[in-house]
Specification:
This protein is an alpha+beta fold. It is built from 10 helices and 13 strands. The strands form 4 sheets. Strands 6, 7, 8, 12 and 13 form a 5-stranded mixed sheet that branches. The protein has a 4-stranded antiparallel sheet with strand order 2-1-3-9. Helix 9 packs antiparallel against helix 10. The longest helix has 14 residues.
């Protein structure tokens, strides 16, 4: 696993957010309370944005709810065994090495994996980072936990076709009155949230000072109906909000999104 590493302080929220680091600095930063993370995918100029994606190296799972023994039993029952399994403080990260992954099918496979493992459903975009093994998780500084490998099979490399067959998400039943949102143009969620497509699919050009709340609420609802989870919808609205003059306060954006996920 070759990586680009990042640091984010585990417990001191006055420290700046996640930032890229050199591998030789990781140990020292970890000793200072920083969690060490990495991006499994390749990005142009190292900028972790969907539009800069060069190559998808892995499909991922982040399992962090429930009993660890039960998690391992679920992993063992999968039709495709992972390439790597990393133990975290609350669960496991699973990686499947990709032979020919595409951005178009990435969200579908990630949803299928999340359903099979009862895992975090927010990994449908390839820009996420996960904790890197060999360093300590220190959100509770008195009880640090070493992130570590528990399974390595580098020969496990899978085609997209196989992953689509084995990790096909269950069809979502949408009430009839909501179908016009969920089937909007048969456009994939991943396509709709790209900044260059905001005007075309989300109609962000309608947003004006007197309609900011209503229009952002409409967009939040549409993204949820397309399968977006809370974190993805919130981040997309925050990104859109930054283009509005004047923008809404963070608390207002958060309230809009929370209202859609009650």
């Amino acid at each position: 696993m070759v990586s680009r590493l990042y640091a984010l302080h585990d417990y001191d929220k006055t420290k700046k957010g996640m930032f890229p680091i050199k591998p030789e600095d990781a140990k020292k930063l970890n000793e200072q309370g920083y969690g060490i993370h990495w991006t499994p995918q390749d990005f142009k100029n190292g900028e972790r944005k969907t539009e800069n994606l060069i190559k998808i190296n892995y499909w991922l799972a982040d399992i962090d709810t429930g009993d660890k023994e039960k998690m391992l039993r679920r992993i063992a029952c999968l039709p495709v065994e992972p390439t790597h399994i990393i133990e975290t403080k609350r669960g496991y990260h699973c990686y499947w090495r990709a032979k020919n992954a595409t951005i178009e099918n990435y969200p579908t496979i990630e949803k299928g994996i999340a359903e099979a493992l009862f895992a975090d459903g927010s990994l449908i975009t390839p820009t996420h980072t996960l904790r890197f093994p060999g360093f300590y998780h220190q959100k509770d500084p008195e009880h640090p936990f070493l992130i570590k490998w528990v399974w390595k099979k580098p020969e496990n490399i899978y085609s997209e076709e196989l992953m689509l067959r084995c990790f096909k998400p269950k069809p979502k039943i949408v009430p009839r009155f909501e179908q016009r949102f969920s089937n909007y143009g048969n456009v994939e969620l991943q396509t709709m949230i790209l900044p260059e497509n905001w005007v075309k699919f989300l109609h962000t050009d309608r947003i004006a000072q007197g309609s900011r709340n209503n229009e952002l609420s409409r967009i939040a609802y549409m993204l949820k109906m397309k399968g977006g989870d809370y974190n993805l919808v919130l981040q997309t609205l925050l990104d859109i909000n930054r283009t509005i003059s004047p923008p809404l306060d963070y608390s207002e954006i958060q309230s809009i999104v929370k209202g859609k996920f009650k």
